[in-house]
Structure formats: structure tokens, C-alpha cells
# Entry
Amino acid sequence: MGTASVAVVESPLQLLGALEAHAAGLAGARTEIRVRSGVPALDAAARTLDAAGLPDGVVLHLGATADDASSAPRGAWLVGDAFSGQWQAAFVRRSPRGRVVLLDDGLATVTLARALVAGSPAVRASRRSGGVAGAARQGLGALVTRRLRKLAQQGRVTMFTAMPLDVPLMTHLHGIGVEVVSHRFEWLATQPPPIAPAEPVVVVGSGLVADGWVRADPYVQWIESLAEFGPVAYLPHRRSDPAVVARLAALPGVRVDEAGLPVEMRLRGLRAPQRVVCLPSTAYVLLDALHSSTGVRVQARPVPDDWWTGNAAPDVREHLSSVLALRPANRLNRERAVS
# Structure
């Protein structure tokens, strides 16, 4: 494929970020987006986007294997999940020939930025060890951080994000050579929005239950309480427990939406007085940016202390809730209280 760039994506948000990065000119004329196999919501999103029309020069490769995900391209290397052990192992074994573009991966983007600035290992919290990654992953993450910092010194690392990084963090990233390119889904804004859910309240599903951080019972009861005041549309997270989704689908007044488009696309067509509610998540930040002029309220409920499981150590709870601080204070105070 010549000097084509390659994006490796593992979630709908990463896929959308790869499309935005290509449209913004960060990947050159041709980009092959390798879509990880085994993620039904991602596969559905990729097929829907492909059918709707991709930016010129983009080709989707569905069902990407481990070898597909780990081979270094001749052009830019667009990385959806820089904490992926598979990608990290490939990155330390192979020398990138072009630029490394770090795509949006929600709150993990902020975590990665802080790790690069601090020079600490690029690792995510582990559910199996009280939030602390094992020694092997710590060692691999340390190698990845050192290598990314070295490439950044050569002007070969770009962070492409819609997350609102604070000024000190941006300044420190620039200081180590990382180019930060912010976007507001400009390519997405040129696409016709899909028909939005009609319900007055839309719940963006959380991955915290399936990940083992939050108990299922209070989560289901919360959504049941929302439906007492009117119809609710529930958009399952890509990491959802089928048993929990089935419980929600059985609740009076709750309609479970089909998996497909990234939530940033699925909910573009909402209009006031509709509102979006969720637990702490990236959607809280990104949907707010998309609906800054529509009057649609985007609200987050902080996780009550008794909802957390025993796996969620205090530092994990703080990290997972930190997305609540990524909104301007005047909006934050108004939008947090959700019964």
C-alpha cells in the first residue's frame, strides 16, 4: 500500500478519531484503518460508517488480527489504545518509520498525557490487582513512555484529541516535544446526523459495571428511577454485561437502543428539551462540546460510595471520577445533580 498510514482502533470513539485525524490531514493521502476483531459494537459502528461514506483516501479493514494490529506502517502510525499490551509490544519491537499519532481514547488520553509528561509507565488501572498493573506491564509501559518521549524530541509524536486538556498539561506536553492538535469533530459536523432517539431522557450506558468497578443492582435501580418520570432510551456501552442489559430492557419505560454508531454520532440529532445522563465518562465531556449550542443538557451522576465494588480502591475511584472535573465550573455545578 505504498506509504499509506495505518490506524489501529479498538473502540467506536477511536474509530471516529481516526477518521477525524485523516480528514484533518494528519495521516497523509491514504489511511488504512484496522478495526479490531471480536468487538461487536465496534464492528457494527465500522460497517455503519462505511455504508454512510468515509473521507476520501480511507479504507476500513474489518476483523484485524494481532499481526495486522502490530505491523508498523510506512506512513504515520495512528494509535487508538496506547495502553494496549499488544500494541505496546509491537511498538517496542519495531521502529516507526513515520509519525506516531495518539488518538482519543477518552479519559485514557488524559492519563497517557500525564504519563508522558511525568516519564511514568504507560499503564492503565488493572481490575485484577487492586488497580495496580503487574511488574511485567509496568516494565513494558516504561519502555513505551521512554520511546514515545524520544520520538517526541524528534518532532514525531502528535496527540490528536477533543478532550479539554488543561493549560499546564498542554504546556508540559509541548515542552517534551509532543504536538497537541485539538479538534471538535469537524469531519463529523459535515455528515448528516442520524435520526436521534425520541425519548426525552437518553442514558449513555457505562462500562463501569462490566469492568467490575460498580455494582449492577444500584445501577439498574437508578435507571428504573429515571423511567418513573417518562420514557428513557438506553444506549449500551460497548463493554456491557448482557444480563444487565436484559434487566434494563425489561424495565417499564426503558427502550434499549441498538448498538451501531459511536455515541457522538448517534446523539448528534438531539434537541432541547431532551437531556443526556450518564455516570462519569468521556461522553459527559464530548457530548457537551457537540451540544454546546443546541440546548441539550448533558448531565453526569457522581458514583455514590455504596455503588463501588471492593475492586475499586480509592485511587481508582478518584481516577474514574476525575472526568467530572473536565468541564467548565459554571456548567459543572449546573449539570452534575442527576437523581
In short: DSSP finds 14 helices and twelve strands in the chain. The radius of gyration is 20 Å.
